[in-house]
Amino acid sequence: MQVTRATFDEVMIPNYAPAAIVPVKGQGSRVWDQEGREYIDFAGGIAVNCLGHCHPAIVDAVKSQADTLWHVSNIWTNEPALRLAKKLTEKTFAEKVYFCNSGAEANEAALKLARRWALDEHGADKNQIIAFNQGFHGRTFFTVTVGGQAAYSDGFGPKPGAIDHVDFNDLAALEAIMSDKTCAVVVEPIQGEGGVTPATKAFLSGVRALCDKHNALLVFDEVQTGAGRTGALYAYEHYGVTPDILTSAKGLGGGIPIGAMLTTTEVGKHLAFGTHGSTYGGNPLACAVAEAAFDVISTEPVLAGVAKREQVIRDALAKINDEFGIFTEVRGKGLLLGMELTPDYHGKARDFIAAAVEQGLMILVAGANVLRFAPALVISDEELQLGLDRFAKAVASVVNANNAQKED
């Protein structure tokens, strides 16, 4: 059956507006479309393809497990899930793991756990969840309400209650609304969809202290920042601040859907038998692939290489900005970087995506005014430089078009 981009408009719900090209093949950090045209991938499936496309370890794991055992349901456990959970607990603060299929599901589980912990330990009045404006935690009704972007949660009827928001990195605002009724504070160490904005170390340390003061749980959403993305296995390590619950997905599976919620034994015991579940969560196929990805990501050469690649990108962006003056700031950490556009280019972030595609490069946005890079952690020097060269040409084309428009 021949399908094209036009087929999308014919048969798919219009909640997405995909680009005109249709990718059909990937290898490393290169992707090819239906016409055979090559692109360098700086998007990584939105920080998902942490080892690029068709990495040998991932391919081998898929093939091996596909010949062995796919799914048995959670009436039974399975070896790949147990091995992956063991490795996650050995490499992090966590003692217990819950598997699901996505970041939204991991966050949903974390929020339900926080509420159940508070109810069991402190009673029904301790139910306030505090999150941050411009945060993003998924698209279920609970997680999208906790996310601090009303545009994503409005229009679906009454929202879950006892959820409040304050500005990110504003410790005084958080302190003002916290009380002994607060059951959890949910925060991204680096806000991804909200503009690639890192938390300050003082802020996260202060959040931890306030949670301790009010006996509330600290939940780190590391769906985008985890799995080596920032150069540590999880970003909390950079800050020296340990959460009570951590959520992981995206890069955890290297491209295969999987999510995980990590926590302590003391907190985790409140999701007792029958309180929560997932039909596909922790299935052998996904866990075997995630284990293979984890084994590569968690090595010192890969994690150390993230910082080296970050510096190459930052140096290239500085040269581009010296020439064109389009960024007010380059922020983020590791291979999750955001470039905020100057006021002259506000609302035009997608112009840069279109120009990049024309040059054979895939990039992302993080809002209307921020461009985002999230390439593979193991992108080759050649692919990285080629992508940066193409990005420079894309920037030049947008700037030239913008200048011509001004002259008209």
What features would you highlight for this structure?
seven-stranded mixed β-sheet; alpha/beta; cytoplasm; 408 residues; 42% helix; Aspartate Aminotransferase, domain 1; Aspartate Aminotransferase, domain 2; 2 domains; amino-acid biosynthesis; PyrdxlP-dep_Trfase_small; 17 strands; four-stranded mixed β-sheet; globular
Tell me what you see in this structure.
This protein is an alpha/beta fold and 408 residues long. It has 2 domains: 5-54 and 301-407, Aspartate Aminotransferase, domain 1; 57-297, Type I PLP-dependent aspartate aminotransferase-like (Major domain) (Aspartate Aminotransferase, domain 2, 3-Layer(aba) Sandwich), CATH 3.40.640.10. It is built from 15 helices and 17 strands. It has helices at residues 5-11, 44-47, 56-66, 79-91, 103-122, 141-146, 150-153, 171-177, 201-213, 236-239, 265-268, 284-297, 300-324, 349-359, 381-407, and strands at 23-27, 30-33, 38-41, 96-100, 128-132, 163-166, 182-187, 190-191, 197-198, 217-221, 245-248, 259-263, 327-333, 336-341, 361-362, 364-365, 370-373. Helix 4 runs parallel beside helix 12, helix 13 (300-324) runs parallel beside helix 15 (381-407) and helix 14 (349-359) packs across helix 15 (381-407). The chain starts with a helix and ends with a helix. The mean pLDDT is 97. Pathway: Amino-acid biosynthesis; L-arginine biosynthesis; N(2)-acetyl-L-ornithine from L-glutamate: step 4/4.
